[in-house]
Amino acid sequence: MQQGRITSLAPQPLALSIALALAPALAAHAQDTQSTPHTDSTTLELNTLLIESVAPEPAAESSVSTLTREQIDNTLSTDLEQLLRYEPGVNVTKDSRFGIGSVNIRGLDGDRVKLLIDGVEQADAYGPTTTYLRAGRSTLDIDALESVEILKGGDIRSGSGALGGVVKYRTREPASFLNAEGDDSYLALKGGYRSASDQFSKTLTLANRHDDLESLLVYTRRDGHETENHGGSNELGITRGATDPGDLASDNLLAKLNYRLNDSNRIGLVAEHFTSDSAFDLLSESSAASTRRADDENERTRFGLSQDYRGAS
Fold first, then answer.
1. How far apart are CA 179 and CA 286, in angstroms?
2. pLDDT-wise least confident of 41-50, 115-124, 227-236
3. What's the pLDDT tens digit per position in 233-289?
4. How far apart are CA 254 and CA 206, in angstroms?
5. Which of 31, 51, 126, 258 could covalently link to 268 via disulfide, CB atoms 3.0 to 4.6 Å apart?
């Protein structure tokens, strides 16, 4: 007779605890699976992120001074030295032979100061020697200027050559002498005298408007001598205190034509010619055995075509 053994399968305490703990979670998952349809992709919505760009504060501009035509007339200026004598931090470099060399702004001059005439940059100074050959950059006449704007200090917007500052010259326009509307004509003759150098000056100005065409002609002639000083010795050589005797003359011609195509579009032509001549007896560099004499000439010629368009932006 064969006997069999029946084994009792009683649940273990640890397994029973795990089953009881997972039962609620499994029941909830089963319910969600039945109520929510199954999809292959899941859409994830992110929060909106706003990015703002703030422009930096503009750098502080250098000091700017503007001399109008009225101020030029009120100071009775005949050259750049007289015009700038009341401007703080600005003067000119000058000697008796070569005249005005450049504008000095806060201690910087020469090619470190940019000069513009009607927006056109002027040539660099020429000075291979300090005594026998030199050419400055003051090849203009005060009577042909409408305004002078001086920017003191470096200006990166004006490009290279503006380490010390910028001097912007604006020449005269026909509209400065004519009525605002209609045909008109203008004629003026001005004379002047400067006792320090016995300089005589004559300026002729003609302006006209006919229909849409405006024209302007400004011509200035100056004749004078060396600027006198008092009490200096008249000896020859480096011990001489008096200025070297000499004659100076200059001519400046400015011509403009402006034509109005319509109310927002104008074209213009400009021609400018400046010459200066000087002849000096260089007694401060002479001796009893030899006498030196200097004859110098500067010339600047400009032709330009311009357009002023002010259409809708």
1. 57
2. 41-50
3. 788 888 888 888 999 999 999 999 999 999 889 999 999 999 999 999 988 888 888
4. 11
5. 258
With contact defined as beta carbons under 8 Å apart, do 169 and 116 qualify? yes
The amino acid present at 269, given as its one-letter code, is L
Q: Which residues contact 226 (CB under 8 A, 6 or more apart)?
A: 96, 197, 243, 244, 245, 246, 248, 280
Residue position matching structure tokens 């990166």: 156
- Mapping DSSP onto H, E and C, the string for the chain reads CCCCCCCCCCCCHHHHHHHHHHHHHHHHHHHHHHHCCCCCCCCCCCCCCCCCCCCCCCCCCCEEEEEEHHHHHHCCCCCHHHHCCCCCCEEEEEECCCEEEEEEECCECHHHEEEEECCEECCCCECCCCCCCCECCCCCCHHHEEEEEEEECCCHHHCCCCCCEEEEEEECCHHHCCCCCCCEEEEEEEEEEECCCCEEEEEEEEEEEECCEEEEEEEEEEEEECCCCCCCCCCCCCCCCCCCCEEEEEEEEEEEEEEEEECCEEEEEEEEEEEEEEEEECHHHCCCCCCCEEEEEEEEEEEEEEEEECCCC
Write out the two tokens for 28: 């909830």
